[in-house]
Write a structure and sequence with these properties.
Number of strands: 2
Low-confidence stretches: 161-166
Mean pLDDT: 80
Strand content: under 5%
Structural class: mainly alpha
Strand order of the largest sheet: 1-2
Order of helices and strands: HHHEEHHHHHHH
Distance between the termini: 43 Å
Helix content: 55-70%
Largest sheet: 2 strands, antiparallel
Amino acid sequence: MLTERIRSGQLKRGDKLPTESQIMAEEGVSRTVVREAISRLQAAGQVETRHGIGTFVLDAPPVGGLRIDPATVVTLREVLAVLELRIALEIESASLAAQRRSDEELAGMRAALDELNEGAAHATDAVSADFQFHLRIAQASGNHYFADIINHLGTSIIPRTRLNSARLAHDDQPHYMSRLMHEHEAIYEAIARQDSEGAKMAMRMHLSNSRERLRQAHERAQVSGA
């Protein structure tokens, strides 16, 4: 499908992907299949979704480049490992974003956050918007390596793409999403007021809370499986 079009050169760097509806009509597949295909391309670093504009083809990742395969992030242990990596990266990128972000970049974060909150309000899982929020923070850091790594990992950085995080945390989905919304808002507000230390603290709290919820779930799973 899309992968073959990119590999064959039919879709080149900078080209905008057809809309979901167009792909559904052309390929005769469901919207879910299309979204999963786009998520895999994002995870492989082959496309980038720009909120309100569309999804665009990126350069193919270089051979021998970053040796992290998002497709392998499937178990609770691996999701925890990715969260530990994110804590190391994203606390600093949030701090830099607070110092360096432009008004346009801040507006991009707000747009992604509004879409995420809209999904939470309607009990839908806006994983793409969650990913875009974190990616836009990394982009606003002014250091493209932060964004490169987040882009490479793609939506696999969002634990609930791999696991039912609400269930694992022994929480109901609306309450779980509400907690995430407040954590994201705290990050955004610190970056908006250009509070570097506040952005660090808010990002650390957000990711550490996620890690703790999943760590406890991992321990329960080990005990029940013993």
